[in-house]
Queue: 2 jobs
Job 1
Amino acid sequence: MTKPVRVRFAPSPTGYPHVGNIRTALFDWLLARHAGGSFILRVEDTDVARRVEGAVEAIMDGLKWLGLDWDEGPEVGGNYGPYFQSQRLELYRDAARRLVSQGDAYYCYCSPQRLEEMRAEQVRQKQPPGYDRRCRNLTELERAQKEAEGITPVVRFKTPLEGQTRFNDLIWGEVVFEHNTIDDFVLLKSDGYPTYHLANVVDDSAMKISHVIRAEEWISSTPRHLLLYQALGFEPPQFVHHPMILGPDRSKLSKRHGAVSILEYREQGYLPETMVNFLALLGWSLDDKTEILSRKELTDNFSLERIGRTGAIFDWNKLSWMNGVYIRRLSLEDFTQRALPFLEKGLPSSVKRPLSIDYTRQIMPLIQERVRTLTEVAGLTEFFFIDGLDYDSSLLIVKKMNQESAVKALEVSKQKLVPVEAFDTGSLEAVLRPLAVELGLKAGQLFGSLRVAVTGRTVAPPLFETMSVLGKERCLERVESALGRLRSL
Ligand code: GLU
């Protein structure tokens, strides 16, 4: 019988949720949902010095935003909790004590200062870094002396001096590490907290994790973990080290390439559906060509075997293209609801809040096709909301027109618009199209001038629709004010 799929996302709360880590969580979640298994969230908060206030909340916020719900972990509990490592310290201490009593680990009393000097010396001698094993073979008497001095020791693993550790990584195939490249790493620090290695192994075993999915940068930790699994008599999970996300220059994606926190993408107006699709394709693919995959298609088709070996480059152009695709797929109501908070935030403070949903709902279809991120919505629609428009008056004079013909065009337009009762697209078109001919202008000239008059810009959504949403009163007012501007040019 195959073991049930149990995967964990094990972030250290040392900062914001980096998209690289979140992509790991996504792979975990996709595998769990594909296989009908469990997705576990475990907080690896044992590095007290690097713990950042609010980081756990930010990580959970990011996961929730993307809809990556966890079956066990903070807030939801589960049979293998607690899910904060800082609440599991006794388990790690027990394991460390057991390893010492079995002879697989030992107490080390070297001071930080001595270790520092040792490291400096290794650098000078161009030797590989690592603990020189001074305390590995202390006699009982020596140990007792150190204890009497009041030194609190760390616990180190007794790495075999010879031989190799091999494992089969699902992505990399057989991986071999020589033991002589691994030092006697620390398991328990002098503050009583475990290191990543010990806590990770104890918990992956206690939580019955079937697959450890993590970034390639952790691959060199894996032989240490396997040595621990063996010494503790635990059965190791399947290891899956996926390639990293890279910036366009092929170095590890970092702040200097652009936004790296998943929450920044939310603020910048990307949809969670886009991020899930986009991040899944950073390293995984269905068939090397399909770009748009719904959450269901992803969970139906996800497989670890289709994670590639090469680093995936984060392509911002592709992300914004994809966001446009997802925005266009939203129902009008959904788009309006999602755009509203961005409008509330992005429109000038002079615009009365709360915004009218009915009015906003009329505007949204005019821009939905053109938007790539929700943050663009405020800028594109501002002229619908503000009172006075601010623009360069000379724009009212469209190519091959002059002041006089522009004044005439707007004058006559105004006269024609006054009697229009149903100010809808059809009626506006029926009035304004023949007017261009009457005035001896190209439609583009008349409409261009009117567009600037009613929107304050040369590029805006379709004119008749725009005018219809703005309404008769506002349009006439704006044409009037444009005439005033033209006359005083
Ligand atoms: N706490 C580690 C991290 O921050 C977990 C790595 C692993 O998945 O083993 O990514």
Note: Residues 330-385 form a domain with the Helicase, Ruva Protein; domain 3 fold (CATH 1.10.8).
Job 2
Amino acid sequence: MSVVTRFAPSPTGALHIGSARTALFNWLYARGRGGKFLLRIEDTDKGRSTDENREAILDGLTWLGLDWDGAPSSQAANADRHAAVANTLLANGHAYKCFSTQEEIEAFREKARAEKISTLFRSPWRDVAEADHPDAPYVIRIKAPREGQTTLHDEVQGDVTWSNDQLDDMILLRSDGTPVYMLAVVVDDHDMGVTHVIRGDDHLANAFRQNLIYEAMGWDKPTLAHIPLIFGADGKKLSKRHGATGAAEYQALGYPAAGMRNYLTRLGWSHGDDEFFSDAQARDWFDLGGIGKSPARFDFKKLENICGQHIAVADDAALLQELQDFLAATGAAPLTETQNDGMLTAMYCLKERAKTFPELIDKAHFVLTQRPVEIEEKAASHLTDVSRGILRELTPQLQNASWSRDILEGIVASTAEAHDMKLGKLAGPLRAALAGRAVSPSMFDMMLVLGQDETIARLQDASR
Ligand code: GLU
């Protein structure tokens, strides 16, 4: 059996980080098994669904690198098919027409409340023959079992049992002929050939209602996996109070997509003690058995740590491309060609300890800036008369040097020694001259990246 998973967001908001994780789990499960990952936009709530939200969701998935198979489908576009299934159930006796009015239903509930019995509506039309039906508006309701229990197996939750008397004869088709959401989900999942439904455990109760439709239609049921929600560090449902909640916010904060994927995969799923892994490993390892039963806690420190590791091992050109995408997505000015070249040369030393793109850009300041280098106050304090003198001394030596790390280290070390100084003492003035900052990549990396002419020119600027 080939695996088909789906992500079925409602475009009533942007892509929440929890939904992004749901999409990721579905994507990993399908991709690791040569299966398909489908995208269905559940846009039946006309009042709250917007095109902007739909676009934001697609953008978020694209940023995260979660590619889907085929075109995204629209649930609303399938309304006729949903209605047809409701009519099939009516024809085969698994559903019935209910003519109860809103007032009658309300009266039923009030009476039930007064008698302290279940307020689930029990329609008097369930067993009334067609011949006795009035010519009046009706809804189509499913005939749910009233006795016994239903047990559903869930790959995360295990066997979950519900008492059938908790299920009402839910409406399938409203009196205006529009299908309800619960019916649409089942019909679409069936028609799309979905084999595995992996979604938030806030949908677990729905699974029992949806199960009625599968049973009544005699359709194969998908494997279920209801995953716990994501909590904040305090053990409460992740919300704005904890920090960013939208996928787009993480993009804007400059987290690399590979790091996000790794962190979100690990959030609520485990493979032994592995914390840092590649996409290929995640695809190979991901399974439903590794999903935890209790809510995972979002840990920003861990996210940063994982992101830093991914930046460190990323391919330089790919990292530069992602940095350019980051700048574009945040509306920042694009890099010039010279800056791009500089970034590419410098990348090996920039990516060592950067956890986000803003950090990478900050470290790259020395290569992004131009002469005359503006010198920050903190850095300027390193440019004393004495240190300026030493920079002046360095210049002719550097002019005659061949430009390799060993040689440069030798020159700076012997100059420091000649002045009875530790090598580190020269880092301050050199950083100030080359980057205009007190914090920067190492002086030798900067010299190597900037090259001989530019290095000497910056030292001369600063030592004047
Ligand atoms: N549209 C639902 C949601 O956004 C998902 C339904 C499902 O996965 O079955 O929560």
Note: The mean pLDDT is 96.
